[in-house]
Amino acid sequence: METDFYKGRLKRWNDDKGFGFIEADNGKREIFIHISALNRMSRRPAVGDIIHYRVHIDNDGKSRAVNARIEGVAEIPPMKRKNIRNHDNTNWLSIFFSIILLLLAAFVFYNRVIKTRHSPATYVSPEQKKESAASEQTAYSCEGKVHCSQMTSCEEAKFYLRNCPDTKIDGDGDGIPCEDRLCGHGFW
Length: 188
Description:
By secondary structure, this protein is α+β, with helices and mostly antiparallel strands. Among the domains are: 69 residues, CATH 2.40.50.140; 53 residues, no CATH class. The chain has a 5-stranded mixed β-barrel with strand order 1-2-3-5-4.
């Protein structure tokens, strides 16, 4: 329950905790005041300030100052809701464009990097495979070569590894023949 405005002097103030007590003009009692009652003031209160306030009596019967102002101190005007709303629209607009840019970047990345890495391999018919194997076999044949020192090229070493038994040209078993001599260092 609120009454009309009263006037009194700030008798005590605890700035760390944000509350104090006003001595009413009639001097009969002290009224509790919290900093939230002075939320529109341009500065915090100090002992000795003249405070204009309304009295609110809580359900437990205690009185406190509300809707207070400090005499001679400028009030900060309340913010207009329209400005806040326009600011919110600007935020949503920038978020929207940021999402669009992220989607565009993801699309470009997918098309340039991912799609090219996972593109289907060119189909090679069984006839083409046979022709390739036949041409390979005509160029090389298993002539009893076993070691890398006997090979003349990386292609010959690959042929021997795939087609000839008992070769000793893939020492570490990684499928790359003669790594240290013919097919190593990125030649594979």
